[in-house]
Design a protein that fits this description.
The protein is of the alpha/beta class and 237 residues long. It contains nine helices and nine strands. The strands form two sheets. It has a six-stranded mixed sheet, sandwiched between helices. Strands 2-1-4 form a three-stranded antiparallel sheet, with helices on one face. Helix 4 (107-116) packs antiparallel against helix 5 (130-143).
Length: 237
């Protein structure tokens, strides 16, 4: 299968602090991958580098063999928190902005998602709770027809019932041949939809493995396996 995302010897520092070191990773399409790691491990930084938002790293990142940042951006849908959009804008206006900016934005798919998530298009961004705002971001992100979807902590403010409802529906919203990477702390909840996991620890990728292989070989759940990686390190300190 063709490699959708290839990262080779990626290194990144910020304010002289090492954030990522010698990260190499190859992921193919038609998969949902969990990007796991404790707070500060570098998950968001890695996503921002893939998306072309963060810069000045060494090494290479390619999407469908494309390394040019501008070209890569057109192939990626990244869960932007809408920080650049005025808070007095209504949800309907945010949609029109996305329609104008992204040629691959699927209005019909978006309308289906906001109906499913019970979003009121007349509401202004300033009136949205954190959870409702995150539902909007998920809808906008997944409405694009992209090769790679990057969801960075997408469920933090969403209540438990809605979170499970969204997670169970992600498979039908994701285009079959695309790659989706989800970084989230709700490991046990996203585990059932994951094909693979990637764990970042000590500034680099320490595990890249199929979810089924982990369950079969270790006899553990994805969450227990992930937590054991840190438990073993702690016991050796």
């Amino acid at each position: 299968m063709t490699t959708t995302l290839k990262i080779d010897q990626l290194n990144y520092r910020k304010n002289l602090k090492k954030i990522l070191a010698d990260v190499s990773l190859s992921l193919t399409g038609n998969k949902i991958v969990g990007l796991l790691g404790e707070n500060g491990a570098g998950k968001t930084t890695l996503m921002r580098l893939i998306a072309g938002v963060a810069k000045n790293a060494s090494g290479t990142i390619a999407i469908n063999d494309e390394t040019n940042v501008a070209a890569r951006k057109s192939l990626i849908s990244y869960s932007n928190p809408l920080g650049g959009i005025a808070t007095n804008k209504r949800i309907s206006e945010v949609k029109q902005f996305y329609v104008a900016v992204y040629p691959d934005f699927d209005e019909q798919k978006y309308d289906q998602m906001i109906s499913f998530l019970k979003l009121d298009e007349s509401q202004r961004l300033s009136a949205l709770s954190k959870g409702t705002r995150e539902k909007l971001v998920i809808s906008l992100t997944l409405a694009r027809q992209a090769s790679v979807y990057l969801l960075d902590e997408p469920f933090g403010g969403i209540d438990s019932m809605s979170r499970k409802k969204i997670i169970n529906s992600i498979i039908q919203w994701k285009p079959a041949d695309s790659l989706m990477i989800i970084s989230d702390h709700y490991v046990s909840e996203i585990a059932p939809i994951l094909d693979e996991i990637v764990v970042i620890k000590d500034n680099t990728v320490v595990v890249h493995k199929a979810a089924d292989a982990i369950r079969e070989e270790s006899g553990q759940s994805i969450e227990d396996y992930y937590e054991s990686l840190y438990g073993e390190a702690d016991s050796n300190d």
